[in-house]
Amino acid sequence: MVDAIVSPLLEMLISFAAEEMQQQAQLVTGVKKEVDKLTSNLRAIEAVLDDAEERLVKDKAVRLWLEQLKYVSNDIEDVLDEWITARRKLQIEGGVDDNALVALHKKKKVCFCFPASCFGFKQEEFGFKQVFLRHDIAVKIKEINEKLDDIAIQKDRFKFLESGSKSSEIPRRVQSASFIDEEEICGRVSEKNELISKLLCESSEHQKGLHIISIVGMGGIGKTALAQLACNNDEVNRKFDKILWVCVSEAFEEFRIARAIVEALDVSSSGLGEFQSLLKTISKSITGKRFFLVLDDVWDGDYMKWEPFYHCLKNGLPESKILVTTRKESVAFMMGSTDIIPVQELAEEECWLLFNRIAFFGRPIEECVKLEKIGRKIAGKCRGLPLTTKAIGSLMRSKKTEEEWQRILSSELWKIEEIEKGVLTPLWLSYNDLPSRVKRCFSYCAVFPKDFNIEKERLITLWMAQGYLGVEQDEETNIIGEEYFNILATRSFFQEFKKDDDNRIIECKMHDIVHDFAQFVSQNECLSTVVSGSEESAAINSLGEKVCHLMLSIHEGAPFPISTCRIKRMRSLLIGGVVFDHSSLDGNILEELFEELTSLRAIEVSKLFYTKSTILEIPTNVKRLVHLRYLNLSHQSIEKLPETLCELYNLQKLDVSDCYGLKELPQGIGKLVNMKHLLDDKTDSLGHMPVGIGRLTSLRTLVEFHVSGGGGVGGSNACRLESLKNLELLHVCGIRRLGNVTDVGEAKRLELDKMKYLSCLRLWFDKEEEDGGRRKEEDDQQLLEALQPPLNLKELLIGLYRGNTVFPGWMMPLTNLRSLTLEKCEKCKQIPPLGKLSSLEKLMIWGLKSVKRVANEFLGIEIIAFPKLKSLTFYWMEEFEEWDYGITGMGSTSIMPCLSYLAIISCPKLKALPDHFHQMTTLKELYILGCAIPGVRFRNGKQEDLISQRANVYSREYDLPQQIKARMRMYSE
């Protein structure tokens, strides 16, 4: 993992040196000298890191050396970050000219070559400050160089091998074989039966290419054992002419694998010195034969290496099968798998039986009885991993006394000693195969408690804050984060996935063993602890300055652990978690934290919705957190943010969502030119947006832009709606209080349709209550027409609209629109022909109180109405009494042929569903609550239970999805 720290540092140093040359570094010649020395030392260290990480498992001295290197590397990163931030501050603080700031930020990187006069400085004053900064940086780098010198000297003592010259003595993975005693296998009955069934089934006549079956699962889960069972099955042996077993392992070495297949075919490979000659021999040997080839432990996802084998192996008979075992689902897809069999953990009782068979072998019965209780607890720690269970069982076989067993139970089983014995070797192998940056992302996950629901978006944000996703401002860090997350997911480091309506992962968990391993590779950098008593957390005190990333969960009545302030190296402070009470955290404690923990990159003080916030203001010394990239203050009782927050020039994400009392954002917010995400939803007290919002040209997410009274004209501090046109990179945008807009021309000048990256748009036509008067209905209609979005829009919400119909001329051309919500458009009497929206998958109609009838106009005139619609919700429609298309002869497949989810809630006058639902076979979930429908009744008078045979029908509020419950709570407030 250390290589993932050193390599980015070298990039920073090279960039730093280049910029210094541009800035006439000869003013302080010591800077260049120290930077050159630092770069040289780091390059020499980087060259041996591969060998050092190989040896850290067995050599404690190496482990300590790497730990020291990591600390110094963090110090270097801090110093360089401080320098870059200080120069940025010099430029921005004098920038009174809006255009200058916008131009500054539209550069690929924030460069440092602008004349000082652009920002109100005299040239000599700017130059003096530059000299002072260079002198300061030279002193700090010199101090770090002294530390790094010692580390470099120690490096030479270890006699590390440089990359590319590793010793052949490095142990290789133990080669697998196809032989196994079936009695040694516990469980796996269903997986075994499924695999055997697929091997014995005849291939389809229409199937083209090879029949490839992949067994996918994390290391140590039993994939190889399952493949071995298949090879030893009598029916399988009778079916195939040849059964071949090849252990592929980490590197997909084409020549070695081809030779192994040849030898498995009982053909001599002597004299076959070319890869192509081996392939020809394989092709000839399998022609006219039905073969079964097992490729065990495939890691490499390079199709170019697999392709020659794929074409060669097609010469066997059509009934031939290839079985692949892999930890990577991506490998299974790459190889063209016809079937994928995922392998999960053993059940608790199966795990115990396996442990019992090994650990209690040959023991007297009375001894077994005495140790069973402890043994079950130890087996429980294995959490269903066969490899780990066998390793621990073998360890316990040598332990004779109850005291020895208890000591093992109470110890950390996954520390160094156990890793050396091979307990976590599969995880270690999988980890070493990760790209270096992904290694850091994985180890960071140890900051969460075990069995924690990890939100993917939150995790990616935390990775971003630490700089794990790269530093290029042109790149979308969320895309890189998604890629890294998917790598870890397909390697089985994550499990228990929760997905959204689009089948995208939104949450996951880590297996306890994987969590222990993450804790090991992070070398105690990450800590999650619960404070439940009156005393300070022992975990915090014991680890001290080793902790870089801390999650605190504080029980009700427990004090905030003030010792946290002593952890100077801390880079993440996440206050919250499974259980949390904010009563012990206030502004005074925050002030002390901000004063001491100046290396922080990420802070969360997010309150759970059912706890009381005691944070009423944010201390002004928040400006000391110059490295901060992510600040989460959601659900707090704050009314305003300090102006000093605008000195956090590296801040990329600010979350103030659900801060209902927040009345204003800082006026200097335009200085936060690196801001990418401003999450300010449910900040109803915000009266306006400060002028500086229009300067944040890196913004990707602006959840709510609040239009001030008079459209922003009335106050010089308020940002005009049309200023949003500068935010060309916006992906998500919401605009509130459109009812305050008095000039439709301002909406036209916004030119929403030119925002080519905009994928989600939310428009609310509410108005400040104290502003008096109501708008005309036609005003809202004209305003909605003026707010034309780009054609690539995927998600649209229109709320609190006062027109008679929500049907702007630009809606039907939105052929990419997938989600549409119409919310509290109370004067709308007719729902537009939304059936024409060819890509629409999700439609939510909430609070349209004037709609009485949904008729054929709703469908449009297309051959297939709503061709892709999967989810439809009607909620709080007080006058909705008839749902009838009045169309005969139209087959059920012509209306909503893909619908799987239907919710009709709080529609008290609706008595029946349209007849086409009677024949619908795709419907899986039906929610009917607060309606006049007796059971499931259709317009033809039939009370049909056919639909209930195909779908789950719910009629209790308890059964409603969380999304609908949340919406109901919001409307009831």
UniProtKB/TrEMBL annotation:
<dbReference type="InterPro" id="IPR027417">
    <property type="entry name" value="P-loop_NTPase"/>
</dbReference>
<dbReference type="GO" id="GO:0043531">
    <property type="term" value="F:ADP binding"/>
</dbReference>
<dbReference type="GO" id="GO:0005524">
    <property type="term" value="F:ATP binding"/>
</dbReference>
<dbReference type="InterPro" id="IPR032675">
    <property type="entry name" value="LRR_dom_sf"/>
</dbReference>
<dbReference type="GO" id="GO:0051707">
    <property type="term" value="P:response to other organism"/>
</dbReference>
<dbReference type="Pfam" id="PF00931">
    <property type="entry name" value="NB-ARC"/>
</dbReference>
<dbReference type="InterPro" id="IPR055414">
    <property type="entry name" value="LRR_R13L4/SHOC2-like"/>
</dbReference>
<feature type="domain" description="Disease resistance R13L4/SHOC-2-like LRR">
    <location>
        <begin position="600"/>
        <end position="902"/>
    </location>
</feature>
<keyword id="KW-0677">Repeat</keyword>
<dbReference type="Pfam" id="PF23598">
    <property type="entry name" value="LRR_14"/>
</dbReference>
<dbReference type="Pfam" id="PF18052">
    <property type="entry name" value="Rx_N"/>
</dbReference>
<keyword id="KW-0067">ATP-binding</keyword>
<feature type="domain" description="Disease resistance N-terminal">
    <location>
        <begin position="5"/>
        <end position="105"/>
    </location>
</feature>
<dbReference type="InterPro" id="IPR041118">
    <property type="entry name" value="Rx_N"/>
</dbReference>
<dbReference type="InterPro" id="IPR002182">
    <property type="entry name" value="NB-ARC"/>
</dbReference>
<dbReference type="InterPro" id="IPR038005">
    <property type="entry name" value="RX-like_CC"/>
</dbReference>
<dbReference type="Pfam" id="PF23559">
    <property type="entry name" value="WHD_DRP"/>
</dbReference>
<dbReference type="GO" id="GO:0006952">
    <property type="term" value="P:defense response"/>
</dbReference>
<keyword id="KW-0611">Plant defense</keyword>
<feature type="domain" description="NB-ARC">
    <location>
        <begin position="193"/>
        <end position="360"/>
    </location>
</feature>
<keyword id="KW-0547">Nucleotide-binding</keyword>
<dbReference type="InterPro" id="IPR042197">
    <property type="entry name" value="Apaf_helical"/>
</dbReference>
<dbReference type="InterPro" id="IPR058922">
    <property type="entry name" value="WHD_DRP"/>
</dbReference>
<dbReference type="InterPro" id="IPR036388">
    <property type="entry name" value="WH-like_DNA-bd_sf"/>
</dbReference>
<feature type="domain" description="Disease resistance protein winged helix">
    <location>
        <begin position="447"/>
        <end position="518"/>
    </location>
</feature>
<protein>
    <submittedName>
        <fullName>Uncharacterized protein</fullName>
    </submittedName>
</protein>
